[in-house]
Amino acid sequence: MGSTDNLAGSRRRGDRTVKADDMQVGGSHYQKDVSPWKAMEAWMSREQFIGYLRGNAIKYLARCDDKGGLEDLQKAQHYLAKLIEVSSR
Fold first, then answer.
1. Of all helices (H) and strands (E), which one includes residue 75?
2. Quick one: which of 53, 65, 74, 80 has the fewest CB in 10 Å?
């Protein structure tokens, strides 16, 4: 079953909501016992973490035509979903 996006930054898969933290775009080398996002969010101020998310979304959008194509667009979408989640708290 496909997924749909909503404005809160999460995605719906069937009858359940999938948050950005529940997804991984790219390699499995990011799957750790402690999520890098959760560690960074704990160590950074809210403003710093929002800047990190925004900067990474911009990075992947800027390079998608020259490097990663569709996967870079999906990574940008992933960072934007997390940014929306954090910004809506």
1. helix 69-87
2. 65
23-69 pLDDT per residue, tens:
666 666 556 678 888 899 999 999 999 999 999 999 999 999 999 89
Residue labelled with tokens 């998608």: 64
Q: Which residues contact 5 (CB under 8 A, 6 or more apart)?
A: 11, 81
* Helix, strand or coil, per DSSP, at residue 18: strand
**Domains in the chain, number:** 1
Global model pTM greater than 0.70: no
Distance CA 20, CA 43 (A): 19
Element (H, E) at 16: strand 16-18
Of 81, 63, 73, 65, nearest to 12 by C-alpha is 81
* Domain membership of residue 60 as a residue range: 3-87
